[in-house]
Design brief:
With about 450 residues, the protein is an alpha/beta fold. The protein contains 12 helices and 15 strands.
Length: about 450
């Protein structure tokens, strides 16, 4: 059996299929959405901070070039342009190797539940799926690559990692959204109070979109809520970031604050969301209340969906829910300095031989995953599945430095007593907290 099931037809899942074909293996890609890169399509209005040259995979390019496709090389695409210019043509080239509307609901070993050792490694994987019409199926495979991402499992506003009291009800009422708004969404909120919760690139992108409207409509009020007591690395590495547009994203957000378009609220850990006269009021654990808001955009990161992997033996970090060897590289509790090492098959292996988690899901709850990282991961993983250990162990990528050094500060430190530790530059100074690309 040389079939390999790939879960997810996003950037990494499609790249994995291309590498498997090059290796003479048979990929079977299962995608829950109705088309390729369904998650990317949901943020298609957002411009990436990675350039075109870092958004295509080598094996995928080789497959596509045989169809006459020419790789885009100039500029920074939006998510929609990424799909149109690369991901959709790649999916078309893969043809019926992709099954859409097929949601994976379980992965295990044939005839062996999680507790059984005897003969386990010799059994094929069984992948259970449910189609949009309600029918179910089971597929056997020699290996499984989980590239399902984290887009469908955003983290809540609640400071304890659980939805704040009232958060679900506010979401059902359309007052709390776990996504990035379009410029049309933002324009519809002109003259109103809008809250953004989160400290990352998605939050900065949302601040950028909203601040464009606030600049035109002075009555628009934007509150940016951070859980930490210090600004820390909220604004990124600036000119020290080796991805210039990623650095510029944070600097635009910083300027929006300096220009008075955005009010920064630090040390605010959301405990409750109260519905009040058709608006949402955020209440912190310390009792502070924000002014009623017409909309709350929650950008607190994402987390992996492990629900369908209960019968797979995983080795995950207890904090990040990422493979242990990957977590060592990306854990923000341990690292404050820029560059992260590229990861490959050896880092992504689990106690279940032949099973790998790649892409954003391999970072668990850690932020700032790059497409480049995923392309290198699938190259290495597919080489390992094919038995080419030399290629699997080789590192073909050095990731760009973020330019962020020691900026996170202590979680409970107030603004004026933030951690001063740094590996290469002073900690950014507090200012009262824009528009630009996301990754």
């Amino acid at each position: 059996m040389n079939s390999v099931v790939v879960i997810g037809a996003g950037p990494q899942g499609l790249a994995a299929a291309a590498h498997l074909i090059e290796r003479g293996l048979n990929p079977f890609v299962l995608e829950a959405g109705a088309g390729p890169a369904a998650a990317v399509a949901e943020w298609g209005h957002v411009r990436l901070f990675s350039p075109w040259t870092e958004l295509t995979d080598a094996a995928s390019r080789r497959l596509l070039e045989r169809t006459g496709w020419v790789a885009p090389t100039q500029g920074y695409p939006t998510g929609a342009q990424w799909i149109e210019g690369y991901l959709a043509p790649l999916a078309e080239a893969l043809g019926d190797r992709i099954q859409y509307g097929a949601r994976v609901v379980g992965v295990g070993r044939k005839g062996r539940d999680l507790s059984v050792d005897a003969g386990r490694a010799g059994q094929p994987f069984v992948v259970h799926l449910r189609r949009t019409d309600g029918t179910e199926a089971r597929i056997e495979a020699a290996a499984v690559i989980d590239a399902s991402g984290t887009w469908t499992t955003p983290s809540p506003a609640g400071a304890d990692g659980l939805p704040a009291l009232g958060e679900r009800a506010a979401a059902e009422a359309g007052l709390v959204e776990h996504r990035m708004p379009t410029i049309e969404d933002a324009t519809g909120l002109a003259g109103q109070h809008v809250v953004v919760v989160g400290n990352g690139h998605s939050a900065a992108t949302t601040i950028g979109i909203l601040s464009r409207v606030a600049k035109r409509e002075p009555g628009t009020r934007i509150s940016w809520v951070l859980r930490r007591g210090t600004v820390g690395n909220t604004f990124g590495g600036g000119t020290a970031d080796e991805l210039p547009e990623r650095g510029a994203l944070g600097q635009r957000a910083k300027k929006a604050v300096e220009d008075g378009l955005v009010d920064l609220v630090t040390g605010f850990r959301t405990d409750q969301v109260i519905l009040e006269k058709g608006q949402a009021v955020l209440v912190a654990e310390d009792g502070r209340r924000l002014a009623p808001a017409s909309r709350v955009f929650v950008s607190t990161g994402f987390r992996p969906d492990l629900s369908f992997l209960s019968e797979v033996r995983l080795d995950l970090d207890v904090r990040l829910q990422a493979p242990v060897k990957v977590a060592v590289e990306v854990d923000p509790n341990l690292h404050s300095c820029g560059s992260i090492r590229a990861t490959g098959a050896a880092d992504l292996e689990h106690p279940e031989p032949g099973f790998y988690i790649v892409g954003a899901k391999s970072y668990g709850r850690a932020p700032t995953f790059l497409a480049l990282t995923g392309f290198e991961q699938v190259r290495s993983v597919v080489a390992a599945i094919a038995g080419d250990r030399e290629a699997a162990e080789r590192v073909d990528l050095v990731l760009p430095d973020t330019g962020v050094c020691g900026g996170s500060g202590l979680f409970d430190a107030p603004d004026e007593t933030a951690s001063a530790g740094s590996c290469c530059a002073p900690v950014p100074q507090l200012i009262q907290l824009g528009v630009g690309p996301a990754s």
